[in-house]
Amino acid sequence: MKRGLGIRDWGLGEFRRLCCAARTRPQIPSPQSLIPVFLAAALSACVSVLPEAAPPSARFTVSDVTVDTAAAPARWTLSVEEPDATLAYNSAKIALSRAPGRIEYYAGGEWVDRAPRLFGVALVRSFENTGAIKGVGSRLTLPVSTYVLQTDIRRLGVVHGGGEMRAEITVFARLTNGRSAVHASKLFSATEPVAADNPAAAAAAIDAGLSAVQREIVAWTLEEAERAGK
């Protein structure tokens, strides 16, 4: 005679059946487990709509020049002060004027430093290139000297007018003893054609004009300093 299932046997079988059903039943993910998925999707969407970064702006510098001179090595020393300039030109931006009294700046290109500082550094190097002055430097490197060259940049940029574009440079120079005595002063200027209306062409034309002004200033300074020393 077969024994019937007891309550204990029936409970164990039912427990196993329920466990098997739970394993085969689809699992519903918890809200917490979905947070990383939502974050990844949101970040992916943000990245796809962000604009691409603009390419870096081109940077330009000011060249120094070589001036041939037959003068004997100078017995005097020369300090070159950093050029003065108004805020219109005391900037790394390349100035542009389309109408009188109006200043704009080129986009997509600029000087590697403030334009007056670049001109001052180039001017010191141009004096060094002559080999005629052993003691020459900026006012910081040569605080005490026989003469001090002071310059004021009055115009430095590209001008549109008369159907053409040209770079205009105007620099006033003053040779002093570093205190109150002014030995000589003169206004220098140069113009150069601009090949195209873009930062690269503008910087090239301005640099050419500054080179012409540097040659004149160097030759003039050597002459005036020798005259003042007699």
Task: Summarize the topology.
Blueprint (H helix, E strand, L loop, with lengths): L6 H18 L6 H19 L8 E3 L17 E3 L3 E2 L7 E7 L2 E10 L3 H16 L5 E3 L8 E15 L2 E13 L5 E12 L5 H30 L2
Parallel strand pairs: 1-5, 2-6, 2-7, 3-7, 4-7
Antiparallel strand pairs: 4-5, 7-8, 8-9
Helix pairs in contact: 3-4
Explain this structure.
25% of the residues are buried. The chain starts with 6 loop residues before the first helix and ends with a helix. The protein is built from four helices and nine strands, in the order H-H-E-E-E-E-E-H-E-E-E-E-H. Strands 1, 2, 3, 4, 5, 6, 7, 8 and 9 form a nine-stranded mixed beta sheet that branches. The model is unreliable at 1-8 (pLDDT under 50). The protein has a single domain, classed as 3-Layer(aba) Sandwich (Rossmann fold). The protein is elongated, with a radius of gyration of 38 Å. It is α/β, with parallel strands linked by helices. It has helices at residues 7-24, 31-49, 115-130, 199-228; strands at residues 58-60, 78-80, 84-85, 93-99, 102-111, 136-138, 147-161, 164-176, 182-193.
| Gross morphology | elongated
CATH topology title: Rossmann fold
CATH class (first level) name: Alpha Beta
Question: Major beta sheet, specifics?
Answer: 9 strands, mixed
| CATH homologous superfamily (4th level) name | ABC-type transport auxiliary lipoprotein component
* CA radius of gyration: 38 Å
Number of distinct beta strands: 9
Could you give the distance between the termini?
Answer: 145 Å
Number of helix segments?
4
Please state the second-level CATH architecture.
3-Layer(aba) Sandwich
N-to-C SSE string, H for helix and E for strand: HHEEEEEHEEEEH
Residue stretches low in confidence (pLDDT < 50, at least 5 long) are 1-8
The helix/strand class is alpha/beta
Strand percentage lies at 25-35%
Helical percentage: 25-40%
Average pLDDT figure: 85
| Total count of domains | 1
